[in-house]
Design brief:
This protein is α/β, with parallel strands linked by helices. The chain is about 35% helix and about 10% strand. Strands 1-4-5-3-6-2-7-8 form an 8-stranded mixed sheet, sandwiched between helices.
Length: about 325
């Protein structure tokens, strides 16, 4: 699949042992339903950030919104997973031109063919990051906000979703400053909670001194095991669901309140985003999950994530 430049579409009307750092409750941002931006981020690789970013953007689009996905990860998984391999490898024009040479952001935004647009990653993003430090010493973390998100949000798009690098960087700071709303994926494993702690300590806490950065959702992702045994899946869900300060950040699809039912072997309980063959195959076919397998049972999770972004918070089911 190749992308079509969307300049015409822009005129549409439409640590495992430590938990001490997780005790400060997050304050939700009140929302009136107007346009907003969100970053999918975690200072740990292999948690499925790009999968969540792509499918969140797709679900928001399916809800009737104009959506822009910005791929700020130098690895370019979201871009490649949507078929934009050529754009990723072509460094003649990238977000660096927008940041430093006053290029129109619309010139590097493309229609994906799946009802949302993409500003793709490129192989030279790491070089762009080095230039950010040198080229904009006064506001090095505000370039994305100033040059892309502010001009596009409301005027062109209802929602902006960014896929951020899995390490602390100027690019990640730019994503958080530009969006201030975060979706944090976690995958099972011994480093799951420590990855969350690192993200809070190194990325979110410093920015909260200056901005109202809000965590919209903590998303257990890539789960595959039963949870009526002491598996890594269960350990992750137990840790998340046992922290009072995190309860309003756990989506309904990952919320567990009846652990007796779990211990009794209730196999109907499959919380979190589960590891499905369709999700892997969708990436291989360069498509969002909704378009590859509209009957996949995990689409309900991505639909709830879209609703959380729309509402500005997790909305509990009665």
């Amino acid at each position: 699949m190749t992308g079509t430049n969307s300049r015409n579409s822009l005129t549409r009307t439409n640590s495992t042992n430590s938990t001490t750092h997780l005790t400060t409750p997050y304050q939700s941002i009140n929302t009136d339903g107007t346009s907003r931006a969100v970053s999918v981020c975690m200072l740990k690789g292999g948690v499925g950030k790009s999968t969540i970013a792509v499918n969140l953007a797709r679900q928001l689009a399916a809800h009737g919104h104009d959506v822009l996905l910005i791929d700020l990860d130098p690895n370019g998984h979201a871009s490649v997973g949507l078929g934009f391999d050529n754009h990723y490898h072509d460094t003649t024009e990238s977000i660096g031109d927008v940041f430093f040479d006053d290029a129109d952001p619309a010139s590097i935004i493309y229609e994906t063919g799946y009802e949302f647009d993409l500003l793709p990653s490129s192989e030279d993003l790491e070089q762009v990051e080095r230039e950010i430090v040198v080229g904009d010493v006064f506001q090095p973390s505000a370039l994305l906000k100033r040059e892309v998100v502010d001009p596009m949000l409301d005027e062109v798009y209802d929602y902006v979703v960014t896929d951020s690098p899995a390490y602390r960087s100027r690019l990640t700071d730019n994503a958080l400053v530009a969006t201030t709303n975060l979706v944090l994926p976690l995958a099972p494993g011994n480093e799951a909670m420590s990855g969350l702690e690192r993200t809070i300590e190194r990325q979110i806490a410093p920015l909260r001194k200056h901005l109202n950065v809000d965590v919209l959702a903590l998303v257990p992702n890539m789960l595959s095991e039963r949870i009526d045994h002491q598996t890594q899946d269960r350990k992750l869900l137990e840790r998340l669901n046992s922290h009072d300060s995190l309860q309003d950040r756990i989506p309904n699809f990952a919320r567990i309140t009846d652990w007796e039912a779990v211990g009794a072997g209730d196999n109907e309980l499959t919380p979190g985003i589960r590891d499905r063959t369709s999700i892997t195959k969708a990436y291989g076919e360069r498509m969002p999950l909704l378009d590859y397998d509209p009957d996949c049972d995990q689409l309900k999770c991505f639909a709830e994530l879209a609703h959380i972004v729309e509402a500005g918070e997790v909305v509990r089911h009665d």
